[in-house]
Amino acid sequence: MAAALAAAEAGAQVTLLERRPKPGKKLLATGNGRCNLAHRGEPVYFGDAAFARKVFTVCPPESVMAQLDTWGLPLYTDPEGRVYPATQQASSVLSLLTARMAERGVRLVTDADVEAVTGEEGRWTVRTADGRAFSAERLILATGGLAGGGLGNRPQDYALAEGLGHHLTPTFGGLAPLEAELGKFRRLSGLRLPARVRLLCDGKWVAASSGEVLFTDYGVSGICVMQLARDAQECLERGRSPELELDFSPVYFPEERVYAREAEPAADAYGRTAALLFERERRFGRAAMLTGLVPDALAALCPVKDVRETAAFLTGLRLRVKGVRPMQYAQVTCGGIDTAEIEPATMASRLRPGLHFAGEVVNVDGDCGGYNLQFAFATGLIAGRSAAE
Q: Of 83, 120, 125, 188, which cross-links 215 as Cys (Cβ 3.0–4.6 Å)?
């Protein structure tokens, strides 16, 4: 929709083909329905992160937010830099985009299940499953990624680009819950706790994040865990053994509750935890030192015969990762169209003149916090403007 609007505002006649009865279904689900559009902090991208940096040289996050404001969308920035529509309703974003497309003369064709794309001598023909054909001088593929189950695209949507000579890097789910060997910790299913989470691969620190952890019957979830899904998947694919190390000290040291990816291992919380527990043992006795400090379900699993063991447990609980939850549970797709075949300044194909790409279909993915929609909007604006030239 951003690409269609940008192209229309640059003077092009635009037809937008939408596979579903209505556009924007996946947009409505973003940010738990609040639509986290962008982030004012340092960009955090993976896949071809260098490509993402080049894209934002052409269309910085500030330009994305300025364009949304120009279209009439007031924005709100939370204390951690996440940007939302001022209404904090994804429906406001969708309503605005569809209204502006109608005003700019964008032809929206719904129930258009594209099954073939051909192009000769600067003319593209797009055919749908019901026999319709559409023709244009320029074509933008913005089919999205596989994540989100029924909200995402399908493998055959990538095949459209492959049929035109482009190559696909391996795809897998990112920002997804992790499956883990829980054993006795299965009793914690349903419990939410603030924590620091470190991902270890063969015992070596790989990445860390902090936030809220959710225990489930299959493993663990929560944004801070989902941030580590890409690293866990890569570890598993190399035949190595990933583990999660959970530090629950933010539960009883609330000043340490930070919700962010950590660039390096957090400072060891063991010493502070041990000192706190020795003091509580002195005051309340060993049997009651955890009462009121941590949830009862967690306290019941703590080894309390030795204070040092308890401190080690609370700051270094390890769970072996068995896998990443399937694509339908992921929020973003890792992998996609090889960015080496795309010009970041225009999002144009380096292989087929007149072909452009935008959004999650390419090999770039970001952390939670608005980074993925921010990239989608930026590439959409670039592709639309470039295609209209």
A: 188
Helix ranges, the chain (H): 2-9, 25-29, 49-58, 61-70, 90-103, 155-162, 223-226, 229-237, 249-252, 270-284, 296-299, 307-316, 371-387
Residue that is last in its domain, among 305, 324, 343:
324
Model confidence over 353-365: pLDDT tens digits? 999 999 999 999 9
Instruction: Indicate if 153 and 121 belong to the same structural domain.
Output: yes
- Are 12 and 45 part of one and the same domain? yes
Which amino acid makes up residue 214?
L
Its pTM stands at 0.92
Note down the domain range covering 82. 2-174+329-387
Q: Clarify whether residues 23 and 92 are in a common domain.
A: yes
Q: What is the pLDDT of residues 131-186, one digit of tens each?
A: 999 999 999 999 999 998 777 678 889 999 999 999 999 999 999 999 999 999 99
Long-range contacts of 162-168 (CB under 8 A, 24+ apart): 163/116, 163/117, 164/117, 164/119, 164/349, 164/351, 164/352, 164/355, 165/351, 165/352, 166/337, 166/338, 166/341, 166/349, 166/351, 166/352, 167/337, 167/338, 167/341, 168/335, 168/336, 168/337, 168/338
